[in-house]
Amino acid sequence: MSLFTFLDEEDGTKVPSLTRMVVSDLYLSWPVVQTLTCAALAAILIVKLYNFLTCRYYTGIAKMDGKTVIITGGNGGIGKETAREIAKRGARVILACRNLETAKKARDEIVQDSNNQNVIVKKLDLSSQKSIREFAEEITRSEPRLDVLIHNAGMAANKIQMTEDNIELTMATNHFGPFLLTHLLIDLLKKSAPSRVVVVASELYRIVSLNLNNVNPTRSWFVPRLYYVSKYANICFTKELARRLEGTGVTANCLHPGIVDTGIWESAPVLFRWLLRLVIKGFFKTPVQGCQTSVYVACAEELQEVTGKYFAECKEKEVTRGASDENKAKKLWEISERLANLRPSDPKI
């Protein structure tokens, strides 16, 4: 008989010995598998409980009746929940979205939940300077006021892609697009003062640096890291914007919403996507939890004159020395003016 077979103890049939070894190993390791599974489930429950207990919910009663709020990327995730909460407070909410189909569905859901019919959808692709200009022109022509501009939309590409304006896609959508849009709407914001610019950044900025010599990269050793770089740029932009808007009645603040279960993570490399989904569902905040600081910074009456700050869990938080470097922020601003193709006729900040 081969060394690779053995006689079954019950019926005497031959079964490969390697099979028996594998079956035996699986049988012996089953208690270990059970233990590890229970430990993983316990860890997930603990983290979910921690998120629930530590997440600060904005419970202020500030009303937004008569105010107009633009939310980019309001068709899903944090943006959709932010729009829902602000609509409940009575504001006119404009969902500025690239995908009009999902935006209209979100609009209908928000109207039903908030009992606020004053929620509209407008086309906006932040990766396209042409789209941004068309959107801004329509807003300035049709809207008499703009009280809050929330830069919520964001994306993370998994490969280098250049836009029609020759800007790397992640940086175009997350930084240069909001930079241009803010300029084009600044006169309406000033006219409506006191008004606010709210920028959704991320704590993930802390794991990267901002290389001012390469803010429009054509290659990268790990493309998803550009998302973190764009969040770093968001903070520098907000700080410099606040300095330039001093005395105008327009404030500018940025925030970290938490690590949230949103569609943005679907752009992760395929090899990691399945594992990432498990981590996301087990450990990340829900969009409802993630929108709380955005709503707080956009609505809270006590923040009416607060500007140039960074918030997390509905409270102010310090940023790194690099992110608060005025010289770096000014240099980024100058580079952004060029790459966003600001024109002499455009509003100045």
Helices and strands, with pairings:
Elements: E1 5-7, E2 14-16, H1 17-54, E3 68-72, H2 77-88, E4 92-97, H3 100-114, E5 119-123, H4 129-142, E6 148-151, H5 169-191, E7 195-200, H6 225-244, E8 250-256, H7 270-283, H8 287-290, H9 292-299, E9 310-312, E10 315-316, H10 326-339
Parallel strand pairs: 3-4, 3-6, 4-5, 6-7, 7-8, 8-9
Antiparallel strand pairs: 1-2, 9-10
Helix pairs in contact: 2-3, 4-5, 5-6, 6-10
Plain-language structure description:
This protein is α/β, with parallel strands linked by helices. The chain is 46% helix and 13% strand. The protein is built from 10 helices and 10 strands. The strands form 2 sheets. Strands 5-4-3-6-7-8-9-10 form an 8-stranded mixed β-sheet, with helices on both faces. Strands 1-2 form a two-stranded antiparallel sheet. Strand 4, helix 3 and strand 5 form a beta-alpha-beta unit. Helix 5 packs parallel to helix 6. The chain is globular, with a radius of gyration of 25 Å. 42% of the residues are buried. The N terminus is likely disordered.
